[in-house]
Design brief:
Keywords: Coiled coil. Helices cover about 95% and strands about 0% of the residues. It is mainly alpha-helical. α2 (about 60-95) packs antiparallel against α3 (about 100-135). The mean pLDDT is about 85.
């Protein structure tokens, strides 16, 4: 019986040592998990901040894109005006035999005036858009 108690005592001591060793390992694992969790939170915060900074860098592009859209519409209008002028010029070419030099010269001057007016409108519109843009920007 005393032998059984001694064997039981030895086994209990061995198991107790094993439990102590495992407790130490568990505490180490718990600390590692905490560190991993903290690192993950830090990385997520860092990546979020980087994304936020990138978005901040891209925000100034919005007015540029808006200006680009406006300019594209303006170019479309000018293309239409050029088509109209081309049609007028084609008509003039067809009628060239019906007019003398002085009449043709007057029509050319008239068309040049219209073209200058169109260019002036374009410049005025562009200046107005730039002024509006300056007023919008802080």
């Amino acid at each position: 019986m005393s032998q059984s108690i001694e064997v039981l005592n030895l086994r209990t001591q061995r198991d107790f040592q094993y439990v102590l060793k495992m407790e130490t390992q568990m505490k180490g694992l718990k600390a590692k998990f905490r560190q991993i969790e903290d690192d993950r939170k830090t990385l997520m915060t860092k990546h979020f901040q980087e994304l936020k900074e990138k978005m901040g860098e891209l925000l100034p592009l919005i007015p540029v894109l808006e200006q680009y859209k406006t300019d594209a519409k303006l170019i479309t209008q000018f293309k239409e005006e050029i088509r109209n002028l081309s049609a007028v010029l084609t008509g003039i070419q067809e009628e060239i035999g019906a007019y003398d030099y002085e009449e043709l010269h007057q029509r050319v001057l008239s068309l040049e005036t219209r073209l200058r007016d169109c260019m002036k409108k374009l410049i005025d519109l562009k200046k107005r858009k730039e002024e509006e843009k300056r007023q919008v920007e802080p």
